[in-house]
Design a protein that fits this description.
Layout: E1 2-4, H1 6-9, H2 21-30, H3 33-48, E2 59-61
Antiparallel strand pairs: 1-2
């Protein structure tokens, strides 16, 4: 289960481009479960670079294994 705030996907780079839900999905699909949380935040911070985030960024991941 993955829950995140709008600030995570709306985080903009220096050109005003939002990081987007598609990038979150791509990170989740291409990384091992144990790496996903850190990879999402690494990705968004690489995206915004030195720009300060204008909104909170919240991410919650819960492993719901059977």
């Amino acid at each position: 289960l993955v829950v995140y705030s709008d600030g995570l996907v709306e985080a903009e780079d220096g050109h005003g481009e939002a990081w987007g839900a598609g990038r979150v999905e791509q990170v989740l699909l291409t990384n091992a479960p144990a790496e996903r949380f850190n990879r999402v935040f690494d990705g968004v911070y690489q995206h915004i670079g030195t720009k300060t985030a204008f909104d909170d960024m919240t991410l919650l991941m819960v492993d719901c294994a059977a």
